[in-house]
## 1
Amino acid sequence: MPKEIVLSGIRPTGFLHLGNYFGAVKNWVRMQDEYDCYFCVVDWHSLTTHPDTRELRGHVHRLLGELLASGLDENKSVIYIQSDIPEIAELYLYLNMLAYKGELEKTPTFKDKVRQHPQNVNAGLLTNPVLQAADILIHRAVKVPVGKDQEQHVEMTRNLAERFNYRYDAVFPLPYAFNYGESLTKILSLDGTGKMSKSANEMATIYLNDNDDLIRKKIMKAKTDSGPTEQGIPKPDYIQNLFTLMQLVSHYDIVAQFETAYENCSIRYGDLKKQLAEDMVEFIKPIREKAAAIENDKTYLTKVIKTGAEKARSNASKTLELVRKAMHLNYV
Ligand code: TYM
C-alpha cells in the first residue's frame, strides 16, 4: 500500500530556533520512517518580507545544514529548495484564481506582517497562503506537520483544494495540520511576549546556533515571577513554557521533581532555569556542531539540493499534468 504523503516547509530567513525545532522539525524527523516525505526550504516565501537577497544563499545553506544535523535524511525524504520547482509557481497561478481578496486580507499572518512591514505590503504577502497551498498540493500531501501558528494556512489550503476539486475535478486529497502529540505546538518567547520567532527579541529566542554560554544567559533571563502562593494554582503561560521546554530536553524524573515543587509551592525558579539551561546546552551542542560541519561541506550540500530538486520535480510534474487535464488546458 502506498504511504501517505507528507509535506512541510520552512523559510530561510534566519537560524532555526526552538519554536521551529519543536513545533515542526522534530515531527519531520520522526515522520521520515512512516511516510512519503517532502521537506522544502521555501525561498520564494522569504521574498515577501525579505526583498534583499544578498544573504539568501548563505541562509539556505545554513538552514539545510541545521535540518540535516537535526536528523533529516536525504535518503529517506525528498529535501529541496522551492525555487528549483517551477511547477509550484504554475499551480500558485491557478490557485490564485480560486482565492478571494477578502479571505486573504482576513488571514492573521497577513495582518501581523502588515503591522511589522507597513512600508512593504506587496501582493506576494497577500497571496502568501496561496503559495503555501501550492507547496502542499503540488505533492498532493495529506499530512502537514507544522506549529500552531500555521494551522489556519493549512485550513485555507484545504478550502482551496475543495474549491478546485468541486470546480474542475477531484485532483487533490484534503490536507490536515499534523503533530504527533495531542495538539499543535506553540513555543513562547522567553520574555513571555508571544510566540518564539525569528523576528522577535533575539535574547528571548534560542537558536540552534547559540553557543553554550549564550543559551545559559538567555534561559537565566527568561521571565518568571515570585512563584505559586497556593497549591493547585495554574501556571502562567511563561512558566508553563519553561516546563514545556524542560519536558522536551530534560529527563522525565527531573521534570517530575520540579512539577511536584510547583504543586507544593516550594519551587525555586532559579534552580529550574539552571537545570533547564544545562539540559538545553547538552541538547543543542551536537546539532550545532554537526550543522556547522555540513554547512561547510559544499559538495554534499550540492548533492542534496540537486537530488531533492530532481525527485520533487518529477512528482510535481505528475500533479500538474492532472491539474491541466482537469482544467481542460490541453490543446493538442
Ligand atoms: P516558518 O518558517 O515561520 O516556520 C517553520 C515551522 O516552524 C513552526 N514554528 C513554530 N512552532 C511552534 N512554536 C513556535 N514559536 C514556532 N515558530 C515557528 C511553524 O509553525 C512552521 O511549521 N509559511 C510557513 C512556511 C511554509 C510551509 C509551507 C509550511 C511555506 N510553505 C507548506 C508547511 C507547508 C512559515 O512561514 O513557517
## 2
Amino acid sequence: MSEIRIPEDHPRYESLLTRHRIEKGVDEGITSRQGLIAQGRGEAFDYLLGERTTDGADAAERAAAAALLLADHAVLSVNGNVAALVPGEIVELAEATGADIEVNLFNRTDERMAAIAAHLREHGAEEVKGLDADGRIPGLSHERAKVDADGIGDADVVLVPLEDGDRAEALSAMGKTEIVIDLNPLSRSARAAAIPIVDNIVRAVPNVTRHARELRDAPREELARIVDGFDRERALGEAEREIRDGARSDVSPTDR
Ligand code: PTJ
C-alpha cells in the first residue's frame, strides 16, 4: 500500500495513484478544477499509447536533456497539474540541468501561486520564480502572459508541460526554444514545440533527468548534434500512429 489504499499489485495502480495526486492537489489548492479534466484527457491518450515511454518519446527526452544543458538560461514552467504530479522530480531536473523553476498558471490567483511555490519548496526547491510577474509575453491576453522578467522573460529554453496552445505559440514567436510535454500529439502546444515529448509527465520528467545526468560531461558539440538530429515532425507522426494503431494489443482485456 502507498499514500492511498490502493494495493500495489492492482493492475491500474500507477494510474489510480496519479489520479489521486491530482485530486489531492485540488483539495490543497494547488491544482485547478480544470486540472481534473486535463488529467482525464491525458489518461485517455496514455491508455492508447500503452502507458509506456515509446522509443520516439525517449529520443525526445534525450534531445530535451541536451537542449536544457546547452541553454544559456533554461526555465522549467510549473502549473497546478505539474506541481501535484511531479514536484520533487521537477526539482531534481532543475538541479541536473541548472534550470530555474517558475510557476505560471492559466487560472492564476495569489493563493494558488503561493500554495504551489510553498509545495515546491517543501520538495527541495531553493528558488521559485513567477511571483514577481514583472514581465509579459506579448500577444497573450490571459494570465499566462505574466512572467518574471529574469525568469521565463529572459530564458532561451523553456520546458512547458501540459499547456494549452496559446502560450506555447507565443513563446515560440518570441524565439525561445520550447520543450513541451503533452500526451496529445495533435495539441497546438505539441505542434508549436521545437521538442515535443509525447509521454506522461510522471515518466517523462525523471527520464529527462536521467539523460541529463548521463550527458552532463558531454562536449557541447555532442549535445548540439543530439538536438539537431531530433526530428520533431517524425516524432509527432510516430506518436500519432502509435495511438491510432492501438498500441494496447499487448494488454489482456482484464487489464483494461
Ligand atoms: O494550473 P493551471 O491553472 O495553469 O491550469 C492548467 C491546466 C492543465 C488546467 C490547463 O493548462 C489546461 O486546461 O490544459 P488543457 O488545455 O486541458 O491541456 C492539457 C494537455 O495536457 C492535454 O493535451 C492533455 O492530453 C495533456 N495531459 C494531461 N495530463 C497529462 C498530459 N500530458 C502529459 N502527462 C500528463 N499526466
